[in-house]
Amino acid sequence: MSSLHKAHIKKLIYGGYGLSQLKDKTLMVEYALPGEEVEVDIIQEKRDYAIGRAIKVLEASQDRRDAPCPYYGTCGGCQLQHMDYKAQIKAKEEILLETLERIGKLQIDKLEKSLYGEEFGYRIKAQFKVAQERIGFYERRSHKLVEIEECLLLYPSINQLIPSLREFVKRLRNLQEIEVIYSPTEDEFLLKAISTEEIPKEKLRKVAETSLPKKVVGVGLYKESKLYHIGRDFVFVKIGPYLYRLSMDSFIQVNYKLWEKFIEFAVPKSYYDKVLELHCGIGFFTLPLAKRSSFVNAYDSNGRAIRDAEYNAKINSIDNVSFMQEKSSIALRKHAGDIFDLIFLDPPRSGLSEGEAQFILKNKPKSIVYVSCEPTTLARDLKVLIKGSYKLSTLCMVDNFPNTYHIEAIAHLEVV
Questions:
Q1: What is the pTM of this model?
Q2: pLDDT < 70: residue spans in the chain
Q3: Which CATH number, 3.30.1020.10, 3.40.50.150, 3.40.980.10, 3.40.720.10, labels domain 97-117+258-415?
Q4: Domain 4-64 - what CATH class?
């Protein structure tokens, strides 16, 4: 079978692929848009599907544009730069609704107005790959490095740091990756240097002091786990009225331009007596939740994040919250039989673990908020919750990662 085929693209699907047909197989095409006729090079073939790449556009969609980034199509970080940004929003809304219908069997009449901001310059975190003293990102489905001068998705200050990172890498062998965390409100950086070998602390300190700007306030060395750090291992960020400490090993939403909008839509306007929050992180949602509750029990399995959260509650003079390090499944079992007005969920891509949805249904809170970063697991979990006597009151698509295929959502549920 020839590897080149003409294909008509029916629609965009999760993963950023254009959907087509190749004889009796589903064909998923990279860099193609709905309605287009394209010439496709087949790059992977399985028993019931194939993956291809559009190498020539025979009939272009009106939503097609020239990708603004010179590395697009080589670097694997973005999948949708060839699509007008407003069209990306519409396509992601349609994918979210289709996924909920196909997997969750949920017919949703309409979404709330989607949350989105600017399509570039939004990321305050970057994971640069390192190979032979070069830094960049991997090609799609490859560990081949694409060296870059800048990434359009990154906050400009991170791009300005790249020449210093290049010097840092040249003077330290065996680095595999450098993770950069930036505070846009304090103009400070943290670096996580991932190495195949341990580097003496004084050597790392000397290299950091002579190759990195003073705005880099801390550098951590990691092998399988963290070995040590020099300088500070945290920065502060201000979000609305709240100040948050963010450590190297804690998590925060990377799209800083949506921070306040995200909180505004996710945190209910009603007042609650008791709230249970799972996967609370550094207290990103917890602090505003506490302002609208009598008491919040908040859990996360990341001990460093919990220490940050406790500190954040203290510096913001919030004392009606308890933070504990615990897996979400154990936290739910611990509170079996307790009465909560609201359970607030912000799980990883895997969604609720086996049995967690059933524990939530037994608890029967009046309201549930589910912040999702994976439409397929959201659909699966909503199916269970809605069958268990809940109704979906509002659903909002959140474009936290413009120009990529990723889709986030916020679902508000009420007991029937």
A1: 0.95
A2: 1-2
A3: 3.40.50.150
A4: mainly beta
